[in-house]
């Protein structure tokens, strides 16, 4: 059987005035390795709480299969993880905007390439519930959230995932953006963008194969600058993530030994320059309303300690 992987995740932030700025990232993954008779699974939980002192609190447990008490989908996440003397439990419900299918045209979901498929079942939503990490209870009440679902036969050679919401001057606006370079034969593709931005009460598609020549990306640990064209819109994106509020993990692909290094921050600052033909340009900014993930076969030196959990 050909190898494959599947991941569901919820990413959320509490940036309401008068409350501590916090974020969470919970991920459920499954693997079936090439040539293996059985698969494996893992449950991940990371809480970002700068006011609590220290770096993010992360727990990840690898299991043979998920039990009946584990749920991951477009409206609920429930589960728990125990490893290396740490523990986490979570039970969260999510409501929000209709699904976003990143890839265009839609036939790419049935085609061999790209080898990673992705959708956002809830590209912008509200999550509520409870997370417990090492006995500390985090009451999640009305946090801004997104749900992601991806699957495939191989991780991209290099990718960026950026989500942002709760912009100061336009609270309803949100951004869901995936940028990737993939192997096609022996060649590495230019940066390909897929996603959407919701501004001025309207959802605009970003990227796609027809806009590849206009995409510009400078991605580094803790920093992103990009120009992303779309249908009737162009975005200039700048994101910054403090490395002391960033976690480093290893992602394993469906072929054993095919790994990627990943940096994930749940509290990134994001600035958007929005340009639309015939309209005046707009600037949107959020201080901590973004999540920024950078993945690659190898990353430049960054100083973020690798979490001590194997994958899977």
UniProtKB/TrEMBL annotation:
This is AttH domain-containing protein.
């Amino acid at each position: 059987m050909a190898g494959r992987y599947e991941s569901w995740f919820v990413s959320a932030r509490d940036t309401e005035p008068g409350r501590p700025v916090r974020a969470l990232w919970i991920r459920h993954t499954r693997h079936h390795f090439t040539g293996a008779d059985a698969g494996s699974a893992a449950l991940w939980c990371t809480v970002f709480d700068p006011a609590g002192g220290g770096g993010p609190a992360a727990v990840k447990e690898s299991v043979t299969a998920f039990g009946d008490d584990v749920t991951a989908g477009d409206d609920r996440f429930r589960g728990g993880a125990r490893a290396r003397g740490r523990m986490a439990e979570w039970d969260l419900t999510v409501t929000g905007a209709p699904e976003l299918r990143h890839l265009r045209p839609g036939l790419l979901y049935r085609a061999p390439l790209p080898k990673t498929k992705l959708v956002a079942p809830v590209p912008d939503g509200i999550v509520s519930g409870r997370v417990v990490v090492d006995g500390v209870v985090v009451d999640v009440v009305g946090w801004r959230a997104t749900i992601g679902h991806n699957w495939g036969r191989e991780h991209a050679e290099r990718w960026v995932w950026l989500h942002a919401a709760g912009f100061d001057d336009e609270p309803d606006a949100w951004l869901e953006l995936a940028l990737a370079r993939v192997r096609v034969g022996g060649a590495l593709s230019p940066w390909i963008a897929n996603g959407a931005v919701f501004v001025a009460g309207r959802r605009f598609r970003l990227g796609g194969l027809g806009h590849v020549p206009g995409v510009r990306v400078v991605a580094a640990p803790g920093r992103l600058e990009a120009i992303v064209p779309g249908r009737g819109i162009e975005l200039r994106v700048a994101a910054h993530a403090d490395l002391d509020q960033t976690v480093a993990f290893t992602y394993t692909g469906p072929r054993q030994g095919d790994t990627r290094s990943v940096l994930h921050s749940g509290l990134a600052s994001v600035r958007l320059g929005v340009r639309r033909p015939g309209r005046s340009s707009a600037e949107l900014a959020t201080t901590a309303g973004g999540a920024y993930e950078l993945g690659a076969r190898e990353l430049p030196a960054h100083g973020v300690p690798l979490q001590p959990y194997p994958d899977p």
